[in-house]
Amino acid sequence: MLEILHGRGVVAIAGRRNGQRLWDLAEHWYPESETVTLREAERLFAEKRRALGVRRSAHGWEAHPEAADEVVPDRVTFLSPFDRLIHNRDRAEALFGFRYRLEMYVPKAKREFGYYVLPILVGDRIVGRIEPRFDRKTKTLEVLGAWGDTSRADEAIASLAAFLGAECVRNRGLA
């Protein structure tokens, strides 16, 4: 019941004691704010979705009217599982035809790919996935596995290695 009331903004988590949540009335913790009608909230929510650049409507895909119509740079990068481009997994699958799930909480025997696999973005296409692991003690970046088109993954591996301060790179997962 507290979770339902929390979701409706009636109660708030005011703290923790011994790992347990402490609850209080939300009005004691949240500042005064303007309320909007359900219709206005739905409009604001739709606008926020559209701010991602594209949304699906009854008429198909619609681009935001202010979205830039420029050529996407031909660069290679690995996407975080929490990147705004793919955080909505269903939307990413519909846009890119790329099914992506973070498998860190999936038992090892049931994983399709790996523990922390990242999508590979080349230009405006998701072309594959890669599982890098960085060992802070040895400063070694290791590729444990790679799937799909990894022909340009070395470009992003070099960038990731520099960012992490890796002194050694092992590509055992790349062909």
The share of residues in extended strands comes to 25-35%
Oligomer: single chain
With strands numbered from the N-terminus, the spatial order across the biggest sheet is 5-6-7-8-9
Low-pLDDT regions? none
Structural class: alpha+beta
What is the helix/strand order?
Answer: HEEHEEEHEEEHE
- Mean pLDDT metric: 89
Strand segment tally: 9
Level of helix content?
10-25%
Gross morphology: extended
What attributes characterize this protein structure?
alpha+beta, five-stranded mixed beta sheet, 175 residues, two-stranded antiparallel ribbon, extended, 4 helices
Task: Show the helix and strand layout.
Blueprint: H1 2-7, E1 11-17, E2 20-25, H2 38-50, E3 54-57, E4 60-63, E5 76-78, H3 89-96, E6 118-122, E7 125-135, E8 140-148, H4 153-164, E9 168-170
Can you walk me through this structure?
The protein is an alpha+beta fold. It is built from four helices and nine strands, in the order αββαβββαβββαβ. The protein has a five-stranded mixed beta sheet with strand order 5-6-7-8-9, with helices on one face. Strands 1-2 form a two-stranded antiparallel ribbon. Strand 6 and strand 7 form a beta hairpin. The radius of gyration is 21 Å and the shape is extended.
Summarize the structure.
The chain has four helices and nine strands; from the N terminus they run αββαβββαβββαβ. The chain has about 180 residues and is an alpha+beta fold. Strands 5-6-7-8-9 form a five-stranded mixed β-sheet, with helices on one face. Strands 1-2 form a two-stranded antiparallel sheet. Strands 3-4 form a two-stranded antiparallel sheet.
